[in-house]
């Protein structure tokens, strides 16, 4: 099991280098497999400062093109066509990239993320229809994208976006920022 987590972490480290992401030697990234009741895919990533950090210290440099955003995703035209903006667009972009598997530009990054974050979004479809009319989830159910992705995929991606996304800039909007979202 440790070999699998080490392999994914090495893959992520190589991917960061290829993407031009620089991580300071002041940080230690480590990975462990999830607990006994977790899936074998679940990793626990930790980022530890190896020394005292001062305000202004640069611990990472992350090019905007390495961030998973609506604009950088292979799903950008689908998201724009469906007029899904903000976090909803990012959720769809994340689901799309995950569905591409090894063909995704972010495959090695996506491999180290947990399958989902445990946020209170895990409702049944009937509860969504009756209690969430007019919300992002209800809006997504009315688009053709709903037939591509399952509710579980949406909920998993939404939990990651809700807990880990950053505002990249005005052009890119919100995005998944590799390395920074692990802190």
From TrEMBL:
Record-level GO cellular component terms: nucleus
InterPro entries per UniProt: SET_dom_sf (IPR046341), SETD3_SETD6_MTase (IPR050600)
Protein name: SET domain-containing protein
GO molecular function list: protein-lysine N-methyltransferase activity
Highest taxon in the source lineage: Eukaryota
Ranges in a coiled coil: none
């Amino acid at each position: 099991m440790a070999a699998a987590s080490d392999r994914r972490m090495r893959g992520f480290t190589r991917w960061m280098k290829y993407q031009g992401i620089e991580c300071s030697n002041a940080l230690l990234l480590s990975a462990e497999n999830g607990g006994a009741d977790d899936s074998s895919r679940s990793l626990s990533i930790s980022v530890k400062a190896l020394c005292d950090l001062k305000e202004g210290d640069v611990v990472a440099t992350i090019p905007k093109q390495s961030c998973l955003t609506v604009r950088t995703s292979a799903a950008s035209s689908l998201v724009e066509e469906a007029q899904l903006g903000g976090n909803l667009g990012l959720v769809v972009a994340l689901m799309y990239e995950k569905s591409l598997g090894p063909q995704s530009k972010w495959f090695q990054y996506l491999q180290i993320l947990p399958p989902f974050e445990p946020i209170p979004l895990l409702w049944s479809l009937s509860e969504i229809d009756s209690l969430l009319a007019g919300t992002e989830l209800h809006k997504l159910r009315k688009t053709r994208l709903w037939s591509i992705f399952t509710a579980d995929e949406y909920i998993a991606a939404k939990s990651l976006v809700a807990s880990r996304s950053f505002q990249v800039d005005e052009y890119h909007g919100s995005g998944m920022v590799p390395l920074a979202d692990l802190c």
